[in-house]
Model the fold of this input.
Amino acid sequence: MSAHAHLHYGFPTVFGRGLAAEFRNFVNPPFLVVTMDDLWPLFAADFAGADARPYFTRSTDVGDLERDLADLGEIRAIIGLGGGQALDVAKYFAWRRNLPLFQMPTALSVNAVFGQRAGIRENGRVVYRGFAVPECVFIDLDVLRAAPPALNWSGIGDILCFHTGVLDWRYAHDRGKAEAKWPWDPVLADQSLAKVEGIVDAVDDIRTMTDRGIAALVDGLQWGTSFHGAGWCPRHIEGTDHFLFYTLEHLTGRKFLHGQPVGLGVVVGAMLHGSRADEMLDVIARIGLDIRPEAMGLTWTRLEEGLTTMRAYITSQPLWHSIAHDEAITPAFLADLRSRLDRAYAHRS
Ligand SMILES: [Zn+2]
Done:
């Protein structure tokens, strides 16, 4: 019997419209709205006259956050309103001050809203710290639909990665290289794979962000909390997919739209495993997410550098064993990847 047959996951999540205007009626004042300066003009009227202050996220560096925390004054609740960064800072503040947290994503670009730990930076390195469970995650259908489409399409990266995460887990298990604390669990793996099918089955709805498309994205991103639910096991949720992203981030020191390098990592991982690579690429391209290097500000040379040094980088970290630890990226592989990408986006300019 799998220990994870009855795994608990997800946070209380509410779908609706006009939700930002309701915060003033139920959030304990004075409260802080952790957001971004370019988003605030869209929501300021919802908080007009309320005992609320906006906090504009500029940095996720722990030193900056601790300094700002010391200057906050009296606050009785935290609202996170924005994309990944504002939601992570909201988590961090709620954790450090022991305050109730309410989260409202303005785009579904990553699964940050469905994780207990806050992604922050220590000495320039991303670390995940804290434990913040929101009272509720508010999914405003109209707000999400109004976001730049690529931001929402990016969210499929944090769901399709379950495909390669599970492949890597199975691969490590078959070779006796799965970590003792994370033994292969087919029940947990199957739950992840069902979320992948939820995206494959909703391509058109996600492209146009219908209510059904938003529901499919949220359902897959909610599975992010199964990292905690499975006892901090990351095996069923990420592998080569995110490893390519970590490598590219380390190599370039740049920020990426999360779903682009992760989505490319899904295709790379699926190619290495010989499992559904063209199908994953087709789903990504049909939804509209452009994962070609030029779409994320990388030259082919730079991407090739990332791919060929990934093995050394992930081994040095170290990260849990994957096919990318064993297989060298060859010139033939690079040429194959490039022609697959060219084909997938041939009609998308
Ligand atoms: Zn991710």
Remarks:
- Residues 110, 158, 242, 258, 262 surround zinc ion (CB under 6 Å).
- The chain has two domains: 13-147, 150-348.
- The longest helix spans residues 157-174.
